[in-house]
Prior knowledge:
The structure is a homodimer of 318-residue chains. Chain A is α+β, with helices and mostly antiparallel strands and 318 residues long. The first copy, chain A, has helices spanning 65-77, 99-114, 125-136, 141-149, 185-190, 198-217, 220-226, 233-236, 243-252, 274-290, 312-315, and strands spanning 5-15, 24-39, 45-51, 83-88, 152-158, 161-165, 173-179, 195-197, 257-260, 267-271, 295-301, 308-309.
Amino acid sequence: MKDDCIAAFAPATVANVGAGFDILGFALHQPGDEVVARFNDSHRVVLTRITGDGGKLPLQTELNTAGVAVMKLLEHLNLRKGIDLEVHKKMPLGSGLGSSAASAVAAVVAVNALIGSPLKKIELLPFALEGERMACGAAHADNAAPSLLGGFILIRSYTPLDIVQLETPERLHAVVVHPHIEVKTKDAREILKKSLLLKDAIVQWGNIAGLVAGLMKSDYDLISRSLNDVIVEPVRSILIPGFNAVKAAALCEGALGCSISGSGPSVFALTTEASIAQRVADAMQKVFAEQGVASNAFISKINSEGAYVVPSSTYAAL
Amino acid sequence: MKDDCIAAFAPATVANVGAGFDILGFALHQPGDEVVARFNDSHRVVLTRITGDGGKLPLQTELNTAGVAVMKLLEHLNLRKGIDLEVHKKMPLGSGLGSSAASAVAAVVAVNALIGSPLKKIELLPFALEGERMACGAAHADNAAPSLLGGFILIRSYTPLDIVQLETPERLHAVVVHPHIEVKTKDAREILKKSLLLKDAIVQWGNIAGLVAGLMKSDYDLISRSLNDVIVEPVRSILIPGFNAVKAAALCEGALGCSISGSGPSVFALTTEASIAQRVADAMQKVFAEQGVASNAFISKINSEGAYVVPSSTYAAL
Lengths: 318, 318
């Protein structure tokens, strides 16, 4: 690898995490996206190649989440560098695993390293969010922030943006099952009611407060009791065939809890052990199969590091 | 004091604590209520005396929060003991400081000790809540639980009841200013809207999650940023003359945050030091005075112990 060429990896993420609609997310180890950045002789950001997207993503810089994020970063730094970007999608698109966020995060991490790391990691978040805004119509940080920083991340506030890193209980393992159906983020948003009952909101904020306390205390029972979304899951789950049976199977096999990952269709579960995670994943996939829905499963401890620059030796294999 | 006579103290509490409507409360050291319990020769629970209430509270056992709590406790234990109760109110009634909860908690703590402590402290909560149910029409635990157990208490769920003890940051001091006006709990509940916008709910659960994280981390800045209630305070504050100016004065003097204590009219603030707490209290009282409203102020560290049996030597002075 030449010195003027840097690759970065950014992991998939699970947003919402039960009761934390729009304010909570965590990072997986795998899957994730890789972005390679190198200087070019123009003064423009050029997307030279996208792999793994089945031809679905646009190569125009200003329509691509990675391209937009890098343009905003360079604008902020007032740098007129020409940079080529290669985006290697290594996770399913439109799956509810923060695919667009991962590409944007990997892109800004790679480019920041390429130009001599003028910004700290957390300072890159606003630019990754600009990529998200282009892709989703709004700058939801609950995928981009954990993909960048790792662990469980609370978005305490959006105006102003206030990011809080929570503790990651050592034993937690995540299962994510991605059924091969399409749920558009836009549809998953529009299906939500614009208002809710105060009595339901009280249940929800009891659960999000309990989940945060459970994470901070590594209290797995409390995490389990708190993984309960009474507002969003009941509405969005109708877009996922067999969701209730999939969730029941996960809980039956010992999952601490199970809900929709982001806007779906992926479904996540948390467990305390890798062996339980495998049984939970198998049970969830079996139920999807019974619905005639193919799926794939990812099992991962919680990723506490987030996005990183890929060492050159590893990169050589790309 | 004779062995068959026990006194217990239960502290005043601040419920809601900004964004934690119905799910969060903390205990003060002072003020609080004391209840004296002794055996009598009947098989009945008899309220022999109430002091400090200005004659406002009923002496009929089944209409008094302390009486009901003790009757429910004895029923549960299937004990047909005769017990006399004296209730010494040492805090203002109807102030938003959990007065009815404190009497019920002190009563069950005293009686449990009197009958040989068959139950652990936390096991007394359901009976104190029965007292609350009679007094308020609903068994809200956000005063009774912190009065009994001390510290910051999260009511993760009401069905089933799920009580979580949070951390108490060492430097926290509470200021409570009680303006001498009346706000009925029932009115303060009825004024609330039955529904809310999802976008406001998201702000609220970001803040309650942030507050819990701030308490667990002893992160005073995060506590300060999270002490923000966009749902209940804007509605209830119209019942408190000069509330916005009182809050502004508290923040101006260095309070971490300021909001309504329980259903009001008391207003609380949190600070990091006793000296700041005193300045905050003075400023808040000054603003109330400018509105022509008399008030009194309480300054207290957070009480981490909660209700306790009063040692006999102290009790002799009652």
